Q: What sequence folds into this?
DNA sequence: GTCATATAGTTCGACTTCGGACAAGATAGT
DNA sequence: ACTATCTTGTCCGAAGTCGAACTATATGAC
């Protein structure tokens, strides 16, 4: 199909992005009301990713994983380091680069944060159809992948 | 079911919010690369909403529609007014309040913005399954509704 | 080895976001 | 009418975001 989209298709796109933006807004707001020490979702997400995937990665790799500009990641990592949740060390394999390592405190912080968020999650879990959410995740991931790929052309 | 969530359920929630946040980020980035005059997604979204729903509403009503704090809406509206895209007038029915009206320029701006964005949408429309996106929108809207409702308890 | 170019990360500055505090106006109880 | 309380919108200040410009290092061409 080489045809352009109809006005209704555009409207659907806008509606989709609008819902996504509002949910992102709401979840951010909920998270930051719970996280201690003025930590942000960005902080939590990076910690979470370092634990779930692995640490020792470079700031740029993390920036790409989260699809944020590297200047934003610099700032996020500075916040995590200031709070003692990560340690940044020079990358022995590349003098331009650094590596991000979790600290014990960072590991604990993530566990504590999940504990503080669990009440909200439990409550939401009772009101939402979790199966539906689980089903949506891969579709969102696919949409994300396509948008990201399209952007980097 | 009065049972709490499993660790895997929490992980799914985080994954869901993470995907949503990244898509929000990417779409914001795409939009703002196209919008003229340093306009933001927030500006576009408000204009779009004023046209699609109706204008003459108050700042607080708009803040609620977008689930942002009223101080944020104040700032967004100030930006739109500075650019001549809306006009704010006192609300004759309530001396504390104001009403937001579209200007001709605001109407044109939205049309122009859609034109500038259409290339990206067309390209995405060829790579994404539009039917799937259309199917997801109501589910996201429902999730949004539940989260919002839960938050206001 | 030298130089041009590419890449990693930071700094800077303009802007957005948003909680807290506030002023002006509305509303309800008496 | 009077006062206490609520509501609407703004201002302020702290923090996050991110493009542009910069420094330092790596890589490739010769």
A:
């Amino acid at each position: 199909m080489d045809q352009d989209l109809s006005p209704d298709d555009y409207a659907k796109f806008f509606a989709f992005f609008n819902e996504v933006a509002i949910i992102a807004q709401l979840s951010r707001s909920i998270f930051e009301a719970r996280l201690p020490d003025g930590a942000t979702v960005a902080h939590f997400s990076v910690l979470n990713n370092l634990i779930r995937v692995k640490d020792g990665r470079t700031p740029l790799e993390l920036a790409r994983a989260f699809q944020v500009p590297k200047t934003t990641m610099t700032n996020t990592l500075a916040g995590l380091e200031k709070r003692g949740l990560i340690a940044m060390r020079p990358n022995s394999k590349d003098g331009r680069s650094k590596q991000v390592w979790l600290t014990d405190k960072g590991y604990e912080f993530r566990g504590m944060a999940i504990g503080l968020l669990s009440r909200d999650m439990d409550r939401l879990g009772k009101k939402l159809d979790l199966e539906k959410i689980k089903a949506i995740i891969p579709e969102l991931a696919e949409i994300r992948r396509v948008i990201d790929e399209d952007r980097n052309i």
Notes: The radius of gyration of chain B is 18 Å. Residues 38, 40, 42, 68-72, 75-76, 79, 94-97 of chain B lie near DNA strand C (CB under 10 Å from a C1'). Helices of chain B lie at 7-34, 41-52, 59-66, 70-82, 104-127, 130-151.
